[in-house]
Amino acid sequence: MLPFLKASLTGAQSFFQQSSRWPVGYVMIAGIVVARWLGLFATLELAVFDVFLRSRPAEGIDEQVVIVLIEQDPVRVDENFSEEQLTQLLEIVFSADPAVVGLNIFREELSDDPGREQLLNLFETHENLITVEKVLPPRPIPPIAPLSDSVAQNQVGLNDVPLDRDGRIRRVFVGAYLPDENEDLADNPFRFSFSFKLAETYLATQDYVLENHPIDPEIPIFKDLELPGFTSIPVLEENSGGYVREADISKIQTLLNFRSGSATFEVIEASKLLEQSQDLETLTNKVVIIDEIDAYFPRFLPVSASSNLIQDDETRDISPRIGITGPEFEAHATSQIIRSVIDSRPLIRVIPFWSEDILIVSAGLVGIAMSISFRSTLRSVISLAIVTLIVVSACYLILYRFGLWLPVAPMAISLPLAGITYLGFNYRSQRNALRSQEAALVEVQVLEDERRKAIERAFSAIHAGPLQRLSSLLRSAKDGNTEQSFVLEELRALNQEIRGVGERLRQEAIGDVYFFYSQGDIKLDLTHPMHEVLYEVYSLAVKRKLPGFETIKVRAVSIEPFNCKQLNLDVKRQLCWFLEESLQNIGKHALGTTRIQVLGKNINDFYSLKIEDNGPGIQSTHIGDG
């Protein structure tokens, strides 16, 4: 295996091992893909698409398309254009030898206007004169009548406009099947759109012919017979781009790649042509679109393009400039096809639906990879924001330069969301692991404290009993008292005390609220008031048969009550051990003592427990724990 391939596989394996610890990132990616399948991203994707198209740099005027505008006054109807004037206008336009003329005007089917016959004759004598009709519901409108069959077949285009669910226009018809009684639309008559007929007629003058795509006959192409290759017109599928289950998507529609900027086409007033105050050379070899608009309140179509028909008229500022007018719409639709064939200006295309899913999943995986790559949460978030911005910018540049519409909105959501979600769960995992580690350390510390306490308990118990006995036995041996009976008695008592230490510790471990006295099976409840517990310890200690207690004449005992709520059981137990050991020291070592005094007093904020005797004392250089 090649080294770079092996390294790539190793890196991929390591990535999936780390990311699979918290598969929530993959769940988020899958959720975004499924949400897109359900159409939940459609509105957002179309809105982003509009923003991208509107944000492109201005392209300037298309000199091959000219709009001739007839302004109609809805108040003074009698002063509006008659068919005779319209015929006169067309004759003036044709005198300039245009490439094609589009008459985007509807007239009543039957008319007594004397100019109707002249208008119909113009269609018979000029094959490059195209008019319009509406064929789709809810209101079909026929073309000017009565046209001959040849003119109706070859010189009429439909100007129906497909609306998206949000009421905006982003696509245009290449053509449509006319409604008929046939259930199969493919058997119905087919009509190209008005803008497509204009573009086809113009391109024919430039030696381009219209043909069917060699693979998919429903895709139209324009081909230069003298050059190889062809330009295809991209058509829409049911799930093209941001469209998901759009009701009227068909393969004979294409997206509208309007020219950016506010100055897009030259607009000539029809009155200037009739007055012969306009240079006719501006119409020569051009696409001329003749249309009518309301002189005061023109109707604007909801498109993201900007209109340039009213930019200099201050009297029309009350009219909102939203979208473009009908003639501008047809001009944009015509211009995009002409410029695509002649100048390779990109038409808007989409990639297959499954390819878009791959891009969305890839963006999510990049987000997870960014979260894994940085240990710092802040760096991960900053890197995710930067990479998301790069992805959005790249999608914008690809649309601007190549006309390719990518699923930028789902990608821009999948990348940071998958990364931040993984980052959050990974942080939570690390935090839980840290808490578990801290809990384990606390548990170890608790066990260590218990172990230390157990050792201290064992030492205190041994020191209070067996060590005292052993110390007394050693002192007797030094004094010459080595009688066998005495030694045996002391050793027997020592053995009993050592065994009692283990039992005492075991009993304290089982019932830790008790203090187990070193002699006998006696336990004192440490939850009782401590002055009573200490008095019981004193009473038990002085009852033992120890040599130091035999000569005592005076016993002064005064143990005052005190607040022991803040003392834990270990402190209480150590107080009992202290009192017991102190009294046993007197009984075992303070020979000749005649008076002992046990005082427990509250002094200021402290409690003093003091045990005194009047024995002769022991002179020793050794400092012990007693």
Strand order of the largest sheet: 4-3-2-13-1-12
Gap from first CA to last CA: 79 Å
Strand composition percent: 5-15%
Alpha-beta content class = alpha/beta
The whole-angstrom Rg is 51 Å
The portion of residues assigned to helices is 40-55%
Oligomer: single chain
- Mean pLDDT comes to 82
Unreliable spans are 312-320
Shape: rod-shaped
Report on the structure:
By secondary structure, the protein is an alpha/beta fold. Helix content is 46%, strand content 15%. It contains 16 helices and 22 strands. The protein has helices at 3-19, 24-37, 42-54, 83-95, 115-125, 149-154, 194-205, 270-274, 326-343, 353-373, 377-402, 408-464, 466-478, 484-510, 530-542, 569-589, and strands at 65-72, 100-103, 129-133, 156-158, 171-173, 175-177, 190-192, 208-212, 220-224, 231-232, 253-255, 266-269, 287-294, 300-301, 324-325, 349-350, 404-405, 514-516, 523-525, 554-559, 595-603, 606-613. The strands form 8 sheets. A 6-stranded parallel sheet has the order 4-3-2-13-1-12, with helices on both faces. Strands 8-9-10 form a 3-stranded antiparallel sheet. Strand 21 (595-603) and strand 22 (606-613) form a beta hairpin. Helix 2 (24-37) packs antiparallel against helix 12, helix 4 (83-95) runs parallel beside helix 5 (115-125) and helix 13 packs antiparallel against helix 14. The model is unreliable at 312-320 (pLDDT under 50).
